[in-house]
Automatic annotation (TrEMBL):
Keyword terms of this UniProt record: Signal
Record InterPro entries: FlhE
Protein species of origin: Pseudoalteromonas citrea
Pfam family, one: FlhE
Signal peptide residues on this chain, from the entry's feature table: 1-19
The protein, known as: Flagellar protein FlhE
Amino acid sequence: MKKNIILLALTLASTSVFANEETFNINDVTLLELNKPLPLKSEGGIEAFVASGAWTDVITNPTIRNAGQVYRGPIMSPSANTPSTSKVTNITWQWNIFNYNSGLITYLCETAQGRCIDVSGNFGAGANLEGANVSASTSWQYLFYMPGSGNVSPTMYGQTGSVAITYQ
């Protein structure tokens, strides 16, 4: 299993609902290892989704044309009535890229504090986030980075991405 990390020194807030790209030096980011997430509660069973609430969102990820740039997917947000005092218990994710390249670095980031989970090469899975103190009303966003410079060939075309959040 990939190590989960926290991504610091990067502001993830965006006013646009559309994917965007920007020039960014990935080496300027400080990465800290998080404790290994717990497995989903009763992994494979219905108890994994027993919670006081849940929300999900589906987006289309960006097309990746250039190496050395960070591409941000659209922000995935909870409904307006999601209580900010509730905490995330489980998160599951799914993302797809057509013409995927195994060198692609992919993070799933919560936008409030800029903390990220490294989901590189892990197209669909989940984690128990109890104890991580993540508000259920926090939005999430995928970040994609292809190391190097110049054009990416073949171009990687963003497909759907989603998160499903359960909270208590």
